[in-house]
């Protein structure tokens, strides 16, 4: 009897493990459900939603204060009023055109300023004589605020697109210049000795040793330069512009249209955050080899 019972148990186990059994057919479904549940638990445990709690609470209090009349709508319009103004601009106000103009200006000014900053930062970082000649003047100009030089740039180049690009370019140049210079000067001197031993040419030394070692500082400079270029765009468009998001803000100020002013402010904030997040993603991908502290 015992042998018969063992045979029956083994047969039942073999049937459960068989390719045509219901348990085998349901296994992929259970695995998918388990994976989905694991992903959901991971998302709920992650900290991305924690950062949204404070802004969401602030917006709720803001809307409540405006709806109950505690805050004047001329002074601080409610989020719903701002949303209505945004919808009106998007449908009938040419918001996409103005936003495209602003992004184009910021991108062109950033591109020119970043290229010059990278070039001069590399030059002064590699050669001490170039540092002595160029760096003091650059450092003096770096400390001059945008608002101080904007009238002079407009006087030189007029109210056209050139003056706006120059204002944006002048802001985006300095962060990348400084971070490139400091990144190169922070390279371990032993790498230069290795380059001499291996017989690297100056171009090989720059491409294979210096720039990869200075890449964290250069990427940080790019991120800061883009942020300053976006801020410079606001200054450029608030002074004598006929298009762009800054023009919408200036026009709304003249018409005492507070919701539209807030729409422009929110657009600048959201687009700036998206650009900064893009650069952080690029930085994370380019520096995936770096084993740094994550907090």
Characteristic terms for this protein:
single chain, 295 residues, mainly alpha, MetI-like fold, flat
Describe this protein's structure.
- The chain is an all-alpha fold.
- The protein has a single domain (79-286), classed as MetI-like (MetI-like fold, Orthogonal Bundle).
- 82% of the residues lie in helices and 0% in strands.
- It is flat, with a radius of gyration of 29 Å.
Query: What are the segments in which pLDDT stays under 50 over at least 5 consecutive residues?
Result: 1-5, 7-25
Rg estimate, integer Å: 29 Å
Tally the helices: 12
CATH topology: MetI-like fold
What do the pLDDT scores average to? 81
Secondary structural class: mainly alpha
**What is the architecture at the second tier of CATH?**
Orthogonal Bundle
CATH homology superfamily? MetI-like
Helix content: over 70%
Span from first to last CA? 64 Å
- The beta-strand count equals 0
**How many domains make up the 3D coordinates?**
1
How would you characterize the largest beta sheet? Answer: none
């Amino acid at each position: 009897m015992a042998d018969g019972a063992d045979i029956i148990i083994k047969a039942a186990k073999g049937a459960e493990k068989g390719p045509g059994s219901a348990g085998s057919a349901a296994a992929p479904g259970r695995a998918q459900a388990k994976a989905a549940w694991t992903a959901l638990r991971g998302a709920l445990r992650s900290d991305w939603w924690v950062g949204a709690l404070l802004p969401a609470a602030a917006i709720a209090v803001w809307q409540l204060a405006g709806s109950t009349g505690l805050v004047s709508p001329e002074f601080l319009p409610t989020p719903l009023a701002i949303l209505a103004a945004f919808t009106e601009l998007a449908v009938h106000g040419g918001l996409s055109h103005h936003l495209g103009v602003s992004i184009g200006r910021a991108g062109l000014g950033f591109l020119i300023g970043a290229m010059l900053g990278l070039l001069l930062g590399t030059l002064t970082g590699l050669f001490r004589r170039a540092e002595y000649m160029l760096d003091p003047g650059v450092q003096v100009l770096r400390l001059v605020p945008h608002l101080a030089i904007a009238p002079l740039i407009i006087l030189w180049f007029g109210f056209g697109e050139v003056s706006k690009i120059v204002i944006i370019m002048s802001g985006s140049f300095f962060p990348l210049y400084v971070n490139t210079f400091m990144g190169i000067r922070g390279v371990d001197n032993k790498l230069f000795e290795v380059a001499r031993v291996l017989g690297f040419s100056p171009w090989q030394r720059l491409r294979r040793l210096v720039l990869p070692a200075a890449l964290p500082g250069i990427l940080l400079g790019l991120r800061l330069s883009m942020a300053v270029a976006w801020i410079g765009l606001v200054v450029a468009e608030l002074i004598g512009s006929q298009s762009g998001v800054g023009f919408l803000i200036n026009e709304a100020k003249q018409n005492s249209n507070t919701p539209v002013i807030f729409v422009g402010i929110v657009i600048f904030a959201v687009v700036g955050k998206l650009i900064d997040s893009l650069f952080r993603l690029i930085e994370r991908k380019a520096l995936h080899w770096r084993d740094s502290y994550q907090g």
